[in-house]
Amino acid sequence: MATIALSGVTRRFAGTEALAPVDLTVEDGRFAAIVGPSGCGKSTLLRLVAGLDRPTAGRVSADGRAIGGPGPERGVVFQQPALFPWLDVAANIRFGLDEAGVPRAEADRRVAGWIAAVGLGGFERALPKQLSGGMAQRAALARALAPAPGTLLLDEPFGALDRITRNEMQDLLVRVLSATPATVLLVTHDVEEAVYLADRVIVLSPRPGRIVADLTVDVPGPRVRTAPEFVAMRARVEDALGAAMERA
Ligand SMILES: Nc1ncnc2c1ncn2[C@@H]1O[C@H](COP(=O)(O)OP(=O)(O)OP(=O)(O)O)[C@@H](O)[C@H]1O
């Protein structure tokens, strides 16, 4: 696992200031959710940590080392499952293991373990186009975590799924992270999802995104969405988000 740090990070696209200076440290093994109004720079922030983009100013680092590009030590899952359409489920999950030079027998064992862990038994040979949205995201999650990346970056990973499937996927994520721990950054529009999954919820202002609230989720696990302390925490985040919107 890794400590992810952003210090004085800004990102400007031609004429558009997407992120105002952001300072944020997510400690090793912690789970931070990032919420904020549409277009406030959440995906931009995540892409900077993934190494898919460079800041205009400031520094993004993992364990003190500047992030210079994407790497196997940071797994990424987007809203649209990023699976290779020509590879079956098993080969998609295996991809990062082969890249990392994991020996064949060990890779076979790990792929089988992940297929079971994400409930895709019987679909090893299926192509991505043959999967439902939820199944494809199960495969994408397994693919991101199979190389034990240490950091997991999630950009609205369950945003395209129906509520029941989304809740199932949230529980699946909790289970797989208990077996394969990682530092997690989750971008979501869904306050309930943020409170269900994260240790901490970061609220960004409207664009250019600045951190306007940083709330610790002190709801013990297993979390129950209808429990009074959960509902109260959710209301606190919604209030912070509402206050952030009013600053627009
Ligand atoms: N590659 C790019 N080129 C130009 N502008 C961009 C680029 N990427 C993002 N932007 C702009 O930066 C701002 C922030 O975008 P970003 O996608 O990070 O927001 P977001 O908070 O993730 O939005 P949403 O919640 O709607 O997904 C937007 O105004 C967007 O149009």
What is the chain-wise order of helices and strands? EEEHEEEHHHEHEHEEH
Strand content: 15-25%
Distance between the termini: 36 Å
Rg over CA atoms, rounded to whole Å, is: 18 Å
Task: Characterise the protein shown here.
GO terms for molecular function: ATP binding; ATP hydrolysis activity. This is ABC transporter ATP-binding protein. The protein is an alpha/beta fold and 248 residues long. 36% of the residues lie in helices and 24% in strands. It has 7 helices and 10 strands. The chain has helices at 42-50, 89-99, 104-117, 133-145, 163-179, 191-197, 228-246; strands at residues 4-13, 16-26, 31-35, 57-62, 65-66, 74-77, 151-155, 183-187, 200-204, 211-216. The strands form 2 sheets. A 6-stranded mixed sheet has the order 6-7-8-3-9-10, sandwiched between helices. Strands 2-1-4-5 form a 4-stranded antiparallel sheet, with helices on one face. β9 and β10 form a beta hairpin. The longest helix has 19 residues, at 228-246. The chain is globular.
